[in-house]
Amino acid sequence: MQVDFGGLEVIQDWGWTPIQLAEKVDQFRERTIKGMTPECFGDREFFGELMFENPDGWKIIYDENRTILGFWQLIPLTEEGFQMAVHGQICADRIEDRIVPKLMPGNWHNGYFYSLSICPRIRRSLVAFGFGGTIIKSLINLAKKEIYYDHLTVCFATRYSQALNRTVFRFDYCSDHPYIGKMYRGRLTEFLNRKLIKLSVGQNMRDLIRVYQNAPQPLSGMASGC
Fold first, then answer.
1. How many domains does the chain fold into?
2. What is the tens place of the pLDDT at every residue in 95-153?
3. Contact status, residue 141 vs residue 56, Cβ threshold 8 Å
4. How far is CA 43 from CA 29, 36, 46, 95, 147, in A?
5. Residue 67, burial from CB neighbour count under 10 angstroms (0-12, 13-18, 19+)
6. Which residues, at least 6 apart from 224, have a Cβ–Cβ distance to it below 8 Å?
7. Which CATH number does the domain housing residue 53 bear?
8. String of b and e for 112-144 (b: at least 16 CB within 10 Å)?
9. Which listed residue, of 86, 109, 115, 159, carries a Cα 20 to 30 Å from 96's Cα?
10. Residue 221's pLDDT is what?
11. What is the pLDDT of residues 169-195, one digit of tens each?
């Protein structure tokens, strides 16, 4: 099986519209995550346009048949939206323009990993490891535009993702998701300051640490605790 990583350029080469992309992502998430309810799927026009507008906010794994095998998406949230997320008061059907700010250079943002999923048969492969690297590269690209993330929240809905949190992210549990999984939160700046992460031999991780070390300090008083 031939697989690769891709983003907006690949989707445009395929001729997919924003709605088609959102539809294919929804189909992948439904295949991959057990227990998905209708509330776990947002407005396809909104999510498709969001991905086209923020190409550094998501990536896919795909095969030779253009089947999606992995998908992550990091969505900026307002303070109100972030608090809704960490307290288990938000699902895809409640994500809308009102709580999704524009990414502005020179600003720090709250981020919600709307999805962080990989097809079970490749979860423990080098492909999965490399897919994690696309998140790092995207954060570097954003930082070069002076767009930074600090407070992050994520819904871990599978045993695999919860194990990943215990071994890699080490985010704090906040609440149960309203329909599936559990909500966790952490700070990207603290994650990058961990000794194990700082000793990483990966060039991309070292580059990410460097650009964040040179960034202006994030504002205090934002994104208070769970």
1. 1
2. 999 999 999 999 999 999 999 899 988 888 888 888 989 999 999 999 999 999 999 99
3. yes
4. 15, 15, 5, 9, 26
5. middle
6. 83
7. 3.40.630.30
8. bbbbbbbbeebbeeebbeebbebbbebbbebbe
9. 159
10. 46
11. 899 999 998 888 899 999 999 999 886
Residue 77 falls within a domain, yes or no? yes
Q: Tokens 């930074």 — which residue?
A: 148
Q: Alpha-carbon distance 124 to 96, whole Å?
A: 34
Per the structure, the complete domain to which residue 174 belongs is given by: 3-190
Local confidence band at 201 (pLDDT 50, 70, 90 cut-offs)? low
Residue 224 lies in a domain: no
Is 30 a member of any domain?
yes
Q: Are 57 and 116 in contact (CB under 8 A)?
A: no
